[in-house]
Structure formats: structure tokens, C-alpha cells
Amino acid sequence: MVLVHDALELVQRFHESSEMMLDKDTCKDRFISYVFTEYQEEVLQQYDLDMFYEHLNRIQLGRCRIDFDLAVDRWYQRQYELFCEEGTFHDRLFTIVKEVLLKQGATTKEHLINSLTKFFTAPTGFMQRWMNDTKRSVGSYFYYVSKMGIRTYKDIEALVDVWAIENPEAFKEEQQELLAKRKGRGRPQNRELSQLIKHAQEIKPQLTPQEKERIRKIYYYYRKSLDMLGMIEKFRSYLLAKAKEAQDKQFTSPKQPNSIQVV
């Protein structure tokens, strides 16, 4: 039995063993139970009870509920930051949304969210396809799904929201017929987003995949509060910040070229 190094690692271990999707409040309640049942039993196989409580104090879980809730909050924040660094949802998730949309004939966003939730969590849905008669565990399945960006039910709602933003007509029968005929990646197209990308290319003609994802995130986060010019300025600020970061690196690594040029 290997002791965890910090509270976040313990939350991660609990989350991987839960074999389900958990919202933050549910995670907080079950995390406490996990620590004082499963984890405690594992620790007591090699150490005594005093050592167990000293260990909890060492990883800053000594004040019980306050520290436990804080650990869960920090873990969810870290997951959000990692997700933002990796970019928006993977194209494979958009393909899955399209598949479920067409299979279920969803007529509303709520209908699609419910159908997608069942597809991700039911043993006969995506889980069965991923396992494919192998010896993979249910826990490893939910860990895999979490790496794709689906960690809680709210992530499924967010995924559907993005789909609806880029394809608002998707719940109409005639549009679903067109989607069924459309080949290629699952990510839909959006005229306003395409226009934003076009304007961004006027600033920097050769956009990297990371920069395109940044434009998409700017669009998702600021489309309701900023106009097209405001979103372009957000992207310009991002490029300038990246350029400054590259210049700072040159002082420590003179041979490293500046990879970003703002035109």
C-alpha cells in the first residue's frame, strides 16, 4: 500500500475508484466516507491508527470537513485548468454527440443531454464499446472518459451547449437528415465563429492548432458579452502575451527561435 503524497492525489485516487461521474457536492460527501473506510483500511494494513491520523494531518486533512471540502474544490479547479490548457472538447466527443443525436432523434437540448448521459454511463452504451470484451475495468473506463473532458454531468451539459451553439438547427428533422449525410469530423460549423477565425488570420495568417483552439474558447466564453471587435482584441492580447513569453525564454535559451510573430 502506497501512501498518497498530498490531498489532491487522494481525491484523484477516490475519483478513479468511484466508477461513476460525480458532481462536486456529491464528491465532497463521498470523499470523506472513502477516506475513513477504504483508504483507512488500506493504511491500517501496514500502520496503526495513530499513524493514519498523523498522515492525514501531514496532507492537510486534519480539520475534517473544512479540509476535505477544500481538497475537492482544489482538485476540481485543477481539472478545469488542465482542461483549459488542453483546449476545448475533442473532435471525437462531437462525433459521439452527432451519433447520439441521430440515433435518438433528439428534438430538444434537454433530450440530447439525457440521451448522451445514458450513453456515457449505461453499461450497454459507450462503456461497452470501449471495453469491447476486454479485461478493462469500469474504473478505467471513467478515467478514460474524464481524460476526454467528461468528468461530471455538467460537462455533458457543456458539451451539448457547444454543439447547440455551433449547430442551432440540429434539433430539426430536416437538419438531422443533412447531418446524417454529412461525412467527416463531428465538429459542426458556425458562421460567426468562421468569421472570427477569418479576422484572426488577418492578424496572423498562419494560425497554429493551439491558436485556433484559443479562438474557439474566446468565442465560447465571450460571444454574449463582446462583439466581433472585442473578441479579436482578446485574441490579439493572447498573441502579444505569447510573443512576450517567447522573448523572455530567449534570455535563458538564446538559440530558441521566437515561434510567434504578430503581423
Key attributes of the depicted protein:
263 residues, disordered C terminus
Model description:
This protein is an all-alpha fold and 263 residues long. The chain has 13 helices and no strands. The chain has helices at residues 7-17, 24-44, 49-58, 65-86, 91-104, 109-121, 126-131, 138-147, 153-166, 173-181, 191-203, 209-222, 228-252. Helix 1 packs across helix 4 (65-86). It is globular and about 65 Å long.
What's this, in brief?
With 263 residues, this protein is an all-alpha fold.
Give the helix/strand layout.
Elements: H1 7-17, H2 24-44, H3 49-58, H4 65-86, H5 91-104, H6 109-121, H7 126-131, H8 138-147, H9 153-166, H10 173-181, H11 191-203, H12 209-222, H13 228-252
How many whole angstroms does the radius of gyration measure?
23 Å
Structural class estimated from helices and strands? mainly alpha
Task: Spell the H/E element sequence.
Answer: HHHHHHHHHHHHH
- Beta strand count: 0
- Quote the average pLDDT: 80
Number of helices: 13
Distance between the termini: 56 Å
Q: Helix share of residues?
A: 55-70%
Question: Which stretches are poorly predicted, pLDDT < 50 over at least 5 residues?
Answer: 258-263
Shape: globular
The largest sheet, given as strand count, sense and whether it forms a barrel, is: none
- Bin the strand percentage: under 5%
